[in-house]
Structure prediction request, 127 residues.
Amino acid sequence: MTLKDYFEKTAGTGVLSTADSKGNINTAVYSRPHFTEDDKLAFIMRDRLSHRNLGSNPHAAYLFMEEGPGYKGKRLYLRMVREEKNADQIEALQRRKYAKEVNEDRFLVFFELVKERPLVGDDNDGQ
Prediction:
């Protein structure tokens, strides 16, 4: 199953972690990522701490815990590659209807996948 298929078919809770250039960490609950035709992941973000951190440090981690018993899910290590501000594409991608009424600047932030790991355990690569 591709990562795109996994996130389209799997319910759960996601957390995005970012850090500023000094290493100060922030975590925030985020929806499942969107996927582009060029294999990038994208998140819709408001201009808050997670987004501001990416301005000085393009690295992020996304943890996704599947609904249900046990500890199943994924950890994704990401690097920001670009963003678009107030893009029409944001409205098309939004999953929640009430978010369309937000009057704040919104950004569609694109990431490349650096590494994928299971939620629990290790993939035995020594890192």
In short: Residues 49-56 form the longest helix (8 residues). Residues 3-118 form a domain with the Pnp Oxidase; Chain A fold (CATH 2.30.110.10). Helices lie at 3-9, 49-56, 88-93. The chain has a mean pLDDT of 90.
